[in-house]
Amino acid sequence: MKLLPRDPMRFDVFDLFAKYGLVNGALLRDPDVGESFLAAARTSIQRALEDERFLHGQRTQAMFEALVASLGRVLILKQEDAGDVYLSDETLSVPDFRLVLPDGVQMLVEVKNVFQGGPSSFPSLKLHPSYLDGLVRYAAQMDCALKVATFWARQNLWTLVSPATFQQQGKNSTLSMKDAMIANEMALLGDIMVGTKFPLRLRLYNDAEQSGPIDEGGQSDIVIAKAEMFCAEQLITDPVEQNIAFRFMLFGDWHEEDEVSVSDNRIDWVEFRYEPLGNSGQPFAIIGSLSGMFSRAYGLATIDEGGVTQLRQDNVPGYWGRLIPEGYTGQALPIWRFVQKPSFLAAAGSWKDVDTEKLKAELSESRQQASRPPVEL
Fold first, then answer.
1. Is pTM, for the whole model, over 0.90?
2. Residue 291 and residue 157: Cα distance in Å, rounded?
3. Strands, DSSP E only, in 296-370?
């Protein structure tokens, strides 16, 4: 998968400029329209920068696009809600993205961000029923199934579910994180959960001859002479395994601790240790999902304590999907890969069969819903 090259500064900005001129009754070559357009653009940008909810929503939408591209499983990924849309039924709602899966099946995806709840609580996504109904009926008109992708920000969790997963609660169509996790279909996009043995350790050896002793203030220069990685006490030497282990350490869910070895008032080495909190008695533990690790890396590049700093980051299509090579058999870094199937599809066959049959069933249901009048509240 590659990003189709285009020039948004030339085409998108000029298209906005042309629409601005039309709305304001100004000719394109009017000497004043350019300055008034720039002033209006500055005002709009400033208003957007002051709206944290808007910024987080836009960042999440851009992150989902980058995530799908980085997992590299879909054939085509395109913004559905970009550009002008003419509708005979104004109650329809246009989803964010159109995806084409490897078997040729298409789906439309609406992306949402939920920032609520603590680590031990289950937050929920609430949508107005007419809005969800409009998305479903738009998808039916396009002969596609609809999915809702939700980023549960505090839990650093992505889920992908069908509209049927929502429940009616009062005046809202509600999706709890618990229900979303049970019905999660992120595997359709190439997402997997991964586990390995623990602890993972990164040890940085100090060059004592080039660095000084620890001073009275407890400080010392360090010159890294060598770095080693370990998985459950096994030295990792293969470059592919080192790259995987390093990504696991940086962006996985395990707890980090550090240790320093000192002799003769000089630092021998500094070690960073990663392992799960608690011990289940198993020799391995799940360290996270590819989507969760991607999102943690994306967050470091686009957000800080002051809020959103960027909507996008440089992204290599297929990178996270290729992180663990196909047919990988670990030497020092054994990896367990878990592909989640929603509970209601557990008895089905291959993922290809599951995808197709499920989407066809949802399409049939969506067509029936499309024949009904819009929801009135």
1. no
2. 8
3. 303-304, 307-308, 335-338
